[in-house]
């Protein structure tokens, strides 16, 4: 028995060593192959990675992201590609889960991609960023709004290879708080947040900071854990505290249910949320309760600047894009394409260095400028949308202060 | 302290506790006879919820018929769950651990089956009552919650009557007390176990539809049954009154902790209480067979 154990453990160790060596071996080629983009590799496609949730709760946006990238790459390739080479998208499903996000990151690195679009979720992005930073492959998060994605906790410098195409949580929270105070003219707000989600806790934190700093009062701050479906206890406490507005910085599922339950409790306050609300499921799950709810979004289908693109997308895929992920994914892709063109190279490090301080790059939603100090886009516009007759309607454009 | 908030909190707790109870009854039924925790039960509930959803939104039948269809469907599914996944283990006298592993396998299989065929989206049931709530003493009570509680009480009462007073019920009790001795005395064990799984399936049908109406139908909703399992443990696994009382206690406790302690600490507090409670009453409120508890 003892001997068998010994043999097995030796064997396991051998496998471990071999697989480690294999990992080390495959991790280097991308940088090499990217650099050697001289003449011989002309027919070789340039590989663009896509970290995306194609199944699970975030699949709606993930699939829309992939459709948008497929369409854009088709267009670029039809026009002759980049540096005379076609682009090829490699999309792997990360299920919006952190562990899967790391697996996908490792696979993309092994495949030798020159840059990665996604992930869309801050938590997944933070988990995957370690892999990409280590492998020196630039990653451009789509809707990962948590500021720690690009500048990790306790650091002042951004990660060299990690970027994002969207604005960050503080901005979204501040926009929501400013809108509540100035447009809705409320001073007493309640917050219902998801403690199991970084997105939700940070959005809540920055909403509260801006709201209280400008004369508002938070009468109740309540929470639940992701996947929980019953919020009536928390809501009745918020109602009892006399909130005029309920800020629900959660995913569409929780937000829809929370609004429905709040109205069932007889709450008549305003509802306000973040960009995660932007799904038809919000209205399906919340029903009439969502009517009149406001939320901050990154982009709107009705934005005249992207009208033609929305039309093309709808014609190609038979349904409208699920905002705002697809436009941000395309923004990221276009920035990478510009970087490859400008540097004349597919070396991931050259791309990252170019992105670091790029200015006024023409992308889908307008001009993209990256702040070298934080790797966040500067001055990206936000919109406030509202639910009217079960549809999302553009309410107001808001720009960064 | 205001009265209407206390009352509202109590109503909220009872409404969710009622559903925990229904599901806990299913767990307890199966535990009482096979001495293992059927973790595939949550998936039967999830599928029942989808059956109810499709019946109501695609076949446009009323809630009563949807409830009936889901009960029949879940009963059948639960029966085949036993025949496919457990009966051969049972015939070979496998220890409960093997049953649990088989149950987990079934559960993962069914969940992924739904992901692959139906998809991951959330499905809201059609609205049942035009005005969904009524007001009592300043608190609002969901009409659906009220209906669910009354229906659950009736269903649990019928089940209890069936088990206590009919011949088949007596054979179920005999088999749950000692299956070998019951078999020697002429009880057809295979049939009794099949029946227990069908009964548990009927309850899965009811709770699946109620959960779907209250919240929605989606593939990983089966996790809610973890709470029901905890409720069954509080009441004492294998005991029907225990399952009911355990469910209500957990629902009401959660609700009051959310409002009067902290919603962030709700699970920490509720489950901390549960652990302390089990230290002093390890077999739960009504439990008998401590040594077989998993």
Per-chain topology:
The complex is a heterodimer of chains A (about 400) and B (about 290).
Chain A: H1 2-27, H2 29-35, E1 46-52, H3 59-78, E2 87-93, H4 98-111, E3 115-117, H5 122-135, E4 139-141, E5 162-164, H6 169-182, E6 188-194, H7 198-213, E7 217-224, H8 232-240, E8 245-248, H9 252-264, E9 270-273, H10 280-286, E10 294-297, H11 307-317, H12 325-343, H13 348-356, E11 361-363, E12 366-368, E13 382-388, E14 391-398
Parallel strand pairs in A: 1-2, 1-3, 3-4, 4-5, 6-7, 6-8, 8-9, 9-10
Antiparallel strand pairs in A: 10-13, 11-12, 13-14
Helix pairs in contact in A: 3-12, 4-5, 6-7, 9-10, 12-13
Chain B: H1 3-34, H2 41-57, H3 63-91, H4 96-117, E1 133-136, E2 139-142, H5 143-165, H6 167-177, H7 179-184, H8 189-214, H9 224-235, H10 240-260, H11 266-280
Antiparallel strand pairs in B: 1-2
Helix pairs in contact in B: 1-5, 1-8, 1-9, 1-10, 2-3, 2-4, 2-8, 3-4, 3-8, 5-6, 5-8, 6-8, 9-10, 10-11
How would you describe the overall organization of this protein?
The complex is a heterodimer of chains A (401) and B (294). Chain A has 401 residues and is an alpha/beta fold. Chain A contains 13 helices and 14 strands. A 7-stranded mixed sheet of chain A has the order 7-6-8-9-10-13-14, sandwiched between helices. Chain A has a 5-stranded parallel sheet with strand order 2-1-3-4-5. In chain A, helix 9 (252-264) links the parallel strand 8 and strand 9. The longest helix of chain A is centred in the N-terminal third of the chain and has 26 residues, at 2-27. Chain A is globular. The model of chain A is unreliable at 22-41 (pLDDT under 50). Chain B is an all-alpha fold. Chain B has one domain (15-220). Chain B is 73% helix and 3% strand. Chain B has 11 helices and 2 strands; from the N terminus they run ααααββααααααα. Chain B has helices spanning 3-34, 41-57, 63-91, 96-117, 143-165, 167-177, 179-184, 189-214, 224-235, 240-260, 266-280; strands at 133-136, 139-142. A two-stranded antiparallel sheet of chain B has the order 1-2. In chain B, a hairpin with a 2-residue loop joins strand 1 (133-136) and strand 2. The longest helix of chain B is centred in the first third of the chain and has 32 residues, at 3-34. Chain B is globular and about 60 Å long. The model of chain B is unreliable at 290-294 (pLDDT under 50). Classes of the chains: A alpha/beta (401), B mainly alpha (294). At the A-B interface, strand 7, helix 8, helix 9 and helix 10 of A face helix 1 and helix 10 of B.
